[in-house]
Amino acid sequence: MPLSSVHREALLGLLAGAGEARFDEPLSRHTTLRVGGPVDAWIAPASIATVMSVRRYCASVGLPCRALGSGSNLLVLDGGVRGVLLATEKLRGLSFGTATPDDPRIPVTVEAGVSTGKLLSEAVRRCLGGIEFLGGVPGSIGGGLIMNAGTYLGEFKDVTVEVMSVSESGELIHRPHAACGFVYRGSALPPTEVVVSARLLLPPRDRAAIEADVAALRKRRREREPHGVGCAGSFFKNPTGDYAGRLIEACGLKGTRSGDAEIAAAHANWLVNVGSAKASDFVVLIELARQSVRERFGVSLELEVKIIGEPE
Ligand SMILES: Cc1cc2nc3c(=O)[nH]c(=O)nc-3n(C[C@H](O)[C@H](O)[C@H](O)COP(=O)(O)OP(=O)(O)OC[C@H]3O[C@@H](n4cnc5c(N)ncnc54)[C@H](O)[C@@H]3O)c2cc1C
Disulfide check for 281: which of 21, 38, 105, 258 has CB 3.0–4.6 Å away? Predict the structure, then answer.
């Protein structure tokens, strides 16, 4: 349902020319799966202060409001999203501090909209390690923290000291590492909050060694992962002691399609958009994979990808 002109004018006023607003914006443009209906308002503030005022406004008028990173771990349903999506892509602050006499690690302050690729390349340039695990992992820092994104080389939890977020009512909250509740591909950071920045600590490391680890990770990914299709990485979390991809493959589901959504032939835990898939096609494949694995192995697959929005 379109937002009233009163809400539109108020949101545009809060941005005051710094930031961007789009109304009835198709989310297929903002997700790497390239599916998803429209959101009533896509709002990209250019400062943390504006995130706070947009949240305050939404809370005061009862407009739903949640965060959107780079959309690389999202399945948005075909009916779209009601209310406001707060896109973090314009929060791009990134600064490197200096080591203290008792800790050689370098403090880094990074805003939520910085891409994982940008953070990694700036760290490599300064001979800082600890985030080699980001090689080939897309997304924003905010999304990475929420998901505790990572690979066999590590995850966000290993380098994060503090996370700053904005509550529903617009207050800035500082959360030390111990209160973030990082777990495998997840965190206890409340889904109602918008992560706006974080403090990391990165250890100095020989640049050639960092680059060798990143290159090996990227090579391994190139060899195993599908290319040239809409995707969101792994759809399911690996169950303890096993791999979701192995279980789905053992059910004979590789290559199975619903519309233009496919259980990738290259990797059964990747569901991909080979053309003009709808979110409902992915929902069919998710249910098929879950039901088949449950019946054959007695294992309940848990989604890694987040589903938001309404069915058509
Ligand atoms: C090709 C490909 C490869 C991938 N490989 C990996 C991999 O190796 N390892 C891995 O862990 N992941 C992988 N992923 C998944 C994805 O990259 C990560 O989960 C990433 O961290 C998601 O970040 P995002 O900014 O895109 O988040 P989004 O997809 O935008 O959002 C994901 C969730 O986080 C929330 N969120 C996002 N930003 C914020 C914020 N600032 N504040 C509060 N909530 C927020 C959203 O509401 C949503 O619930 C891959 C994805 C793709 C497409």
Answer: 258
